[in-house]
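Bug: token stream looks shifted between consecutive jobs. Job 1:
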Amino acid sequence: MSSLQRTMLKGRLPPTVPGSRIGRSDSFKKSRVRDFKPTQWNEFFAYKEDVVVDEKRTFRIYRTKQPEKVGPTLLLLHGGGYSGLTWAHFCVEITNIIHCQCLSVDLRGHGDTCTGNEDDLSADTLAHDIGDLLNKLYPDEKPPIYLVGHSMGGAIAVHFAHLMIINNIIGITVIDVVEGTAMEALASMQSFLRSRPTHFKSIPNAIEWCIRSGQIRNVDSAKVSMPGQIINCTTNKLATNELPLPENDDDDASSTTQFTHPFSISEDEEISGANEATNESDSSINFTKPLNVNDDIAKKYTWRIDLSKSEKYWVGWFSGLSDKFLNLRIPKQLLLASIDGLDKTLTVGQMQGRFQMQVLARCGHAVHEDRPQEVAEVVSGYLIRNRVAEAVGEFRCHLPAC
């Protein structure tokens, strides 16, 4: 009989909250100091470039180096509110597996991209932005393009492929976006956006919130991704332009601040990037000490984009998405954080074998940030099986295909 069972029989089971780790002292939790110092783009990408498409549109792109052998170009499209830096760790992982070049783009209204009308986030506008950017980058002969999109970016990738703006798309991977569940979630989207803090006192503070709130569960990914989502309130420039942080800001990069949040997250998931080797079991943390973001000192940074203003485009992003996805005449892959995410149309399509599906466990919505290695393996395996990419070395995908 285990010690826990004996304690239960004696009626001395300590009070807990769902998912809490029994026997783990509060003093130990409070003593853990975590590093939230941001990292820079050049640790993951070889090139950063501002591409002028016309007098009203300049797009920020990040690229990995050219592969040693000829391979496809992976065009990576981020979700709403994110930036091209959301793919940083994924790019490192996948270029170590297959011969390819990654092209990550800051979409209109996001990151360091500048356009004449940043509020126009319609599916057609975003899709034609991508086509014009590719024509500018490759005016003569385009490489084979494989589309990878997360959330809003996944919907735009499907829309872009459906419009057939260019004719050299060789396949698509859509990450954690399904028409049925997305349309259902729209009703509560404004409430979710209002629940987020409006300002942050520093870049590390924003990274800390990102992890503690569960937006991203991999601290290493949050360190490079989150600065691409916020701007300095004084300069209106993206926080990435202030990196690296001065040495005297190092103290602010470590924190034990506690945040109030409507749900608890797993501690080993929250710090997975920095502490995978601990092999600790899942637990939940209750954040009870709120950060006072109303003080002027705490209002140094705010969100790059006000997503609430894009509400009129939400239905256009996701309406008809499942049918468009299934009708694409290219190899199709869908990665989900939960099997419950499938709607009826895709469930039927999956049973008919019209696309490959993979469910990745222990992930939040930002699947590619929470588990970049696993996502890279799944996408690489799919490209290799479809003979559109070659492995750098011996490759064996350890994840089962669904």
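Job 2, same session, no restart:
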Amino acid sequence: MEIYEANCAACHGSDGTGSISGIPDLTQVAGFKRGRDSDSELFRHIKHVKNGLKTPKSPLAMPAKGGNPNLTEQEIIEVLKYMREKFTNE
């Protein structure tokens, strides 16, 4: 998906495994698949976190909207759907 590739893949990798050391692997339980975060919670993190979302073991914080202030709510929803389908088979 173009939106993921343009806004997320630089850090999370095209395959979701994390292209930078310490970036969460979205294909693993400890990453995107962790299950405790609903899509609405993930949406909130992607859209609203002003100082970035930083997991304890990550060296970098994810900037709001993946660093793209022009990312729309619909595009965030599409990215979440794409990530669920591609990385978790949910």
